[in-house]
Amino acid sequence: MNSQRLLASIIASLFLFFTPSFLSSKASASPFTQDDSINISINELMASNSSAIADADGDYSDWIELVNYGDVSVNLAGYGLSDKASQPFRWIFPAISLLPNQYLIIWASGKDRRDPAAPLHTNFSIKAEGEEVLLTYPSGTQIDYFPPRPMAADSSFGRYPNGIGPWFSYESSSPGLPNPQPQNQSLLSLPEFSHAGGFYSQAFELTLSHPDPEAGIIYTLDGSEPNLLNLGGKSYLYKNSYPALPGEAFGDFLTNTYQSLHYTGAIQIEDRSSAANYLSMISSTVAQQPDYLPALPVRKATVVKARAYKADGSISNSVCHSYFIFPSGRQSYPLPLISFCTNEDHLFDYYNGIYTAGVDYDEYRAQHPDEDYNQFDPANWHRSGSEWEYPASFEYFATNQDNASLRQNIRFRLNGGASRSYSAKTLRLYAKGDTDNYSFDHQLFPDEDFSSFKRLLLRNGGQA
Fold this sequence. Notes:
By secondary structure, the chain is mainly β. It folds into two domains: 8-29 and 188-463, no CATH class; 40-146, Immunoglobulin-like, CATH 2.60.40.1260. Helix content is 3%, strand content 30%. It contains two helices and 32 strands. It has helices at residues 344-348, 358-367, and strands at 8-11, 15-18, 40-46, 62-68, 74-75, 80-82, 91-92, 97-98, 103-108, 120-121, 133-136, 142-146, 156-159, 167-170, 192-193, 198-200, 204-206, 208-209, 216-220, 234-239, 253-258, 261-262, 267-269, 302-309, 319-325, 337-341, 390-397, 406-415, 426-430, 440-441, 452-453, 455-458. The strands form nine sheets. A seven-stranded mixed sheet has the order 2-1-26-27-28-29-32, with no helix packed on it. A six-stranded mixed sheet has the order 10-9-4-3-13-14, with no helix packed on it. The chain is globular, with a radius of gyration of 23 Å. The model is unreliable at 1-36 (pLDDT under 50).
């Protein structure tokens, strides 16, 4: 396939430019496959258990509920449960039978307990911001799949009708019991924006609203996921200096913070390019003093990500709109453009960020102080697999179009080998967000027949 060269921009309140090449494949037909002779499924999950139900140790652990909605008992020996598509047998069931119409709680606590006569505990937990959960036959065939969806504290997602129905958000969970008919037949609808994300030549006031007068709205301006638990802000550690040569010092820790906000009135959207550079001033290589950090202000967008919520615990998915306020409007960028935003600590956190050298490099360097840096040395950016896959928002602005022609929530990882050590890195984008849409459905390449893609590569300019 002849890949077109596109001008793209990673945006989390700033621009980083690439000339990417996209790779594609046809979308799969179904999110999960099931053998009709065995009828078990994931029926309910809770990923932010702060006070709902305690395990036998008194800990408020995450939990996953299975149900046998069939007519025959099922021995679960050898079945796999996982939060990683690449490792479907991350945790394996012992010999325990699930009777017809029986519900089974498995604590996703990380305690790894498999005694069939005692409560079961996996060796992993579930991220409240959204993480997939998979159930797999011993043969390797996937039985069921729960897509990554953020969860509020003490709320759960459950199927209705039990075992076979779609997923609903529950304010009151029912571990070990049938899920009741949900009061709301779906998630809350998305917040409404007075102006669509896109290119504008003048500043304006953006208003957010929701058709339900009882719904409130939380939002962010820093690319992070709106989170009711983050109204006070969340800080993370990062470094801007790493030793590349023998004798160079380890860099100092620095701190950044991102925060969710309650929507109380109009948001001023304006050209922020004269504001001090922020994320563009964070190192993404091994260097004592990075030489690529911009000396002058770079052009910046305003990213508004919002979601609705109600006092009963129901919540909407998030939606992101990116605003480019330049005097010349869209004429500044006549090529196709991509806006990509995510929590900044997913990229730059010293311990868990995948866009930085981080703790993996410092630990290796401490053990090899007399060696010069090599781009294949251990570093956070060499982490791979679904464990190091994070949620993000994606918008595609076609050539000469002011507004996005495609907008959806996705997940991403880093891609490549040595190129992971470059200041601009290649991203692998997956069309698996918080909806049942598992593809990028758009004619990205006008001279090609493909219009549906499961994955896209957003490549850095040095690897075209």
